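Quick entry between incubations.
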Amino acid sequence: MTRLRRPASRRGGGPLAGEGRWALAFLLPTLLGLAVLSAGPILATLAISLTKWDLLTAPKLVGLDNFLALLSDDRFLKALRNTFFYTVVSVPIGLVVALALALALNTKVRGIAFIRTAYFLPVVTSTIAIALVWQWIYSADSGLLNQVLGVFGITSQKWLSDPTLAMPSIIAMSIWQGLGVNVIIFLAGLQAIPSDLLDAASVDGAGSWARLRNVTLPLLTPSVFFTGVLSLIGSFQVFDQIFVLVKPRPTEATITVVYFIYENGFRFFKMGYASAASWILFLIVAFFSAVYFRSQNRWVHYQ
Amino acid sequence: MSARRLRATRRAILIGLLIVGGLLMMAPFLWMISTSLKTRAEVFATPPTLLPVVAQWHNYPDMWNALPFGLFFLNSVKLATLNTIGQLLTCSMAAFAFAALRFRFRDPLFALLLVTLIIPFQVVLVPNFVLYRLLPHPLSTSGNWIGTQEPLWVGAFLGGAFGTFLLRQFFMAIPRELGDAARVDGANPWQIYRHIYLPLARPALATLAIFTFMWSWNDLIDPIIYLRDIESFTVTAGLSLFQGQYVGRWPLLMAGALVSVLPMIVLFILAQRHFVRGIAMSGIKG
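Done. Structure below.
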């Protein structure tokens, strides 16, 4: 994608003169957006994180106090732990289940399009609507899950308020909702695999398992890599599910980093504190993304 | 012969499993529909009933009138439309510059844009809030943009990493010779963008439009941070308020949830092709 045709003449006369000015005009909105809404504010967050600021009075410079306070704030440490737990559990399971599903759905049968639609539907619906139904399914009081388990003699559980069950319950819902995106990417990857490669492997006597292991999976690693990035970044952003499922507000068993930022910034108006938490989130995501991107030489095969 | 039968059996089992899995995926939606038509007493029946004895259709008007849902829908449609227009316009312009123009700092600038694709947007919630609080607004009671709908759409007119990346991938596949030929005939970059690139990129633009519309429609954190008056609420903010006011009234809550997702489900069924292509396109090229 970055292999561009080299320009014949880099600068100066000819039909290309003045392209820089045109480029500036085309990029003006994007440059403004980068400066005031995305890249610039990352620096602004860092500046605000060094202050104590409630928006009503002038910000007061406090150095690294916010960061030090965060490291001894039990609720923040729990938020970090819960977010890691969410990531470590939901990303691998989501990928493996989606991969198996994509392999199964990659067949030509009548009606397969209809079945695929069923898997994609949760992707397009809002998390708040989805989470409302799941809150009802998980409800300790006559919820569907407890009722169904009751048939098998399993006692009712408080799925969303029991500290050990709450996070797994939220993760289960999130995997269900996110499956479709991964399946679509895997299906596109599968359909891009040249069939003559698979045919050649068959001619050489490879069974279906050997073909999967030695041809399909290696060629699918770019898709796995990409869905991994998406899931990883998404898992650090968990907010909607928590906001809807755990009322009135999450306990230490269910709070996530983004909820912590929301709560401190927009409920308690501790802008400096929320910004410091934002920066820690940014550093964590940057670190994991860098590690993940560096790992790709070892396991991702590009054709 | 027996090998073929074995394969046929395996295939049948596979399809059976897929159908069961598909039903499991659909189950929460079906349960949503069923609950929305039950009475309050039926909902708590043990064992639970699959279907209501008599469908309580009045749950829908009851829910619709409990809060100004009509207004919420108008607000969501308005904001999603503005977001879509803004993203289509400014992302396609940036994508054209990156794909078809030559200028200094092009590659580092594109790399910077890609980096912002990876940053969780919540990291910049605070500075964005502070920025909107500094901007004066003549019609707002706060005097600034907080409490107005402006923070929920103006940013869409300032480009975006995802849309620019998606469209650039598409623009790169358009042969440069087309633009060069037009240039020789005296066309300027704006005309090339407007009359060659945009018409050829229609499928990619449709994909971006659908995604932007969906994201705007489903957004929850921005409406609850910025909106204050109930008249300005979106469907998601309204549903959140409804959830708080009707705790345990599952039939009404499910009716509300279902009505709120209907536009997205209809859009998805009409435009499934574009959805799948959009996700796949941004996926395989990585």
